[in-house]
Structures are given as C-alpha cells and as structure tokens.
Write a structure and sequence with these properties.
With about 425 residues, this protein is α/β, with parallel strands linked by helices. It folds into two domains: about 35-150 and about 295-385, Response regulator (Rossmann fold, 3-Layer(aba) Sandwich); about 155-285 and about 390-415, Response regulator (Rossmann fold). The chain contains 13 helices and 13 strands. It has helices at about 5-25, 50-70, 90-100, 110-125, 150-165, 185-200, 220-225, 240-250, 270-275, 300-310, 315-340, 340-345, 350-360; strands at about 35-40, 75-85, 105-110, 130, 145, 175-180, 205-210, 230-235, 260, 285, 385-395, 395-400, 405. Strands 6, 7, 8, 9, 10, 11, 12 and 13 form an eight-stranded mixed sheet that branches. Strands 2-1-3-4-5 form a five-stranded parallel sheet, with helices on both faces. Helix 2 (about 50-70) links the parallel strand 1 and strand 2. Helix 2 (about 50-70) crosses helix 10 (about 300-310), helix 5 packs parallel to helix 6 and helix 11 (about 315-340) crosses helix 13. The chain is globular. It starts with 6 loop residues before the first helix and ends in a 14-residue tail after the last strand.
Length: about 425
Amino acid sequence: MKKKLTLPIVVMLALIVAVIPLLGACGPKAQPGQTLKIGAMTPATGPVADKGLAGRHGLEDAVKYVNAELGGVKGYQIELVYRDSGYDATKVVNIVKEFMDQGCLMFTTHSSTEMSYAKGIANDAGFPGMATYTSPVIYRPPKHIYGQTPDYGDDWAAFATYYMKNIWKGSGKPKMALLLLNNPTGRGAKDGATAMADKLGIEIVAAEEHAATTISETESLIRVKAKNPDVIFISSTPAPTAVIMKNMRDLKMYPGVTVGLAHASFTEALINLAGADVVEAVYGVFPTATWGDNVAGLAKAKEYLQKYNPQDAGSMDYLTTWAATLVVAEILKNAINNVGYDKLAKGGADAWSAIEKYGIQKLSGYDVQGLQGAVTYTAGDNRLDKLLKVFKITSGKINAVSGWIEAPLIKYEEFSWWGK
C-alpha cells in the first residue's frame, strides 16, 4: 500500500524543483579583486587636447556608469587603465606595451593617429584594439584593429553623395578642393576621394595639407582659390579647421563656396573656437547622435557629464568615447558568455584571441542605446558601424539634415595607389 505524501513534504519538493534551475543559471560569481582590465588612451595634452581631454572624461564617466549602475559586465567590474598619449608616436607605442604587460584584454584609442602609431606592435602581438575615430589605414587590410564608427574615407563618400544629390545644381562635374590634416585624419579623406570621386562625378582640383598647430593657412587657400572650387572638404581637428574658416572669411572665399567637414572637427569645439558666424551654414558628417537628439542613451550620458565634468557640455568627443565604453562592455559580455571569466583572467595571447574571436567578432546588431548605428562585425570589414548622418550648422547649433547613410566597404588595398 502506497503512503500518501503529507502537505509539508509536497511543498518542500515543489520548492526544490523550483530552485534547482535557478542554481544552475547563476554560475560562478565575481570574487573580490576579479576585474576586466581595459587599456584606453586619448590625447588629453598636446596639439589636440581640446578633443582628447573631453574624450578621457567620457571614458572614465562611462566606466563609472557601467560598474555602478549596470553591475559591471556579468558581475565583473571594468578596470580602466588610462594613459594620456599626448598625440605622440613614441608615447603611444610605449603605452601599448604597458597595456599588454599589465594584463589588459584589449585597448582603445581616441584618434586614428594614435591607432596608426599603435597598430604595428598591436597587430604583431595579436592584441586587439578599437579606435573611436578611424582612418582606413588602421584596418585595411583587416587584422587585429577595429573601428568603433565609420572612417574619414566614409565621411568623404557620405558627404560627397549628399552634396551631389541635394546641393550641386550645376552642369558637368563640380570642382572640389581638399584641405587635409597631415596625418591619418587627412589622408583617410583623401583616400576616400581618390577611390570614389570619379564614380560620384566629382573633380578633385586641389589637395592641401596643414599641421595641427597651424596658425594661418592663407598661403594654401590662395592656391585653392585660384582653382575656383565649387566645394571644399576639410578633414582635420577643431583648432586648425577654425583657422581655415577664419582665413576663408578674410579671403572672401566663404560664404560663396560649399564647405563640408569630416567628423573629427565637426563638434561644438569648432563653433566655440571659430565663432558661430564664421561657420554658419557649414556642413559636416558625424557617426553618432548629437546632444539634442531624443535617444535612450543620452539621459545617462548627460547625467554623468553634469555630475562629474560639466565643462564638457556639448562635446561630441565625450559622447563618442562614452559610446565606445558601452561597445567595449558588450565585447566583454560576449567573451565571458562564450569562454568564461577564467579564460580571460589568464591574460596574454590566449585571452586576446578569445576577446577578438568570441567578443568582437560576435557583435551582432548591438544597439548602443541609440547613440550610434547598431554595432555588428562583418567578416572582412573591421568597421563595427557603417552609419553616418550629414549635419549643418545653423545659428550656432548642429542640426541633422539627413537620416542615417550607410557607408559601403571600400577595399583600399585593391587599388594600385594604396600605401604609396
């Protein structure tokens, strides 16, 4: 004769059945001292400190947010190993060595120029890196370096496409002059123009370079003015771009010619440096939302900026590195989900490979809280985001004039002129 189960036993068994799945789902918990080390550099001093210091603050504040409010990554705190590059090649190489020696799982740079200095040692070691501002030279052909957003070649192509469809009303080919910073910021835009100008029906009539420390570009602009361009594209940083725009005003070149800017200089810093009237009606491209947009991720970015770094109000460099940190957190989450913390904790080449293969290359449609295009890894294309918007400065404000534009992949290494 079978015995009937009493009510207390039934209740106890039910609780056991309910709890077992929960115990299995919990997995190992983070222990004190177990962190995820990430290297990061920005040029917080030197010729582009107006960008790099705000970029540093965006990184640091976003790490605070992830650790304090999101519980870190799968319970593990991000440990930020930050260094100021000073925009200096020797410093950058030494910093990357330090990141590797300290057990960092990957590293980020703020600028494409920093990454152009870092890529050699990082690629040789298999140490994965991600640049916030990017140029084709850092990841074509693709190796271990990735771009958070589209590059300066993509900037040129997006603006040129918009210009041909919405601004150019003349007959024949419009004449374009390029004003380029003498590093990957400028060369990236020139590479994009060299690859795509004929296809888009644009004639490049001049390409002038300048230094980040320039105080006058009158001489180069006189040469450009003699070419009678219809449109000028500037790929630089805020300070030299402000100099160029003031010089163009003095030479009565602007207004009168359409001006477009790549995203390294198209920030509130440019308006502050040049003056709103000087840059009125200037176009530019940018790969993220602006501070005035209505997207989910802006509320927290604004909250932390106002609490810790109110002086950076309106800085797109703060916003882009904030977004970069969220992308890094997603990479770390992917890697932990796929290989576990212990694999990463050992550091070195195996951990770097795991971050790249099971973290970066597992990115698929990650929504960066609306702050930029969805992040996805595509084999053969180390740009993790391909979307840009065209903006225009009106009454001292940066306003979108287009929706998201997808920048197609350009395989620069297949052109005979690449790298020469």
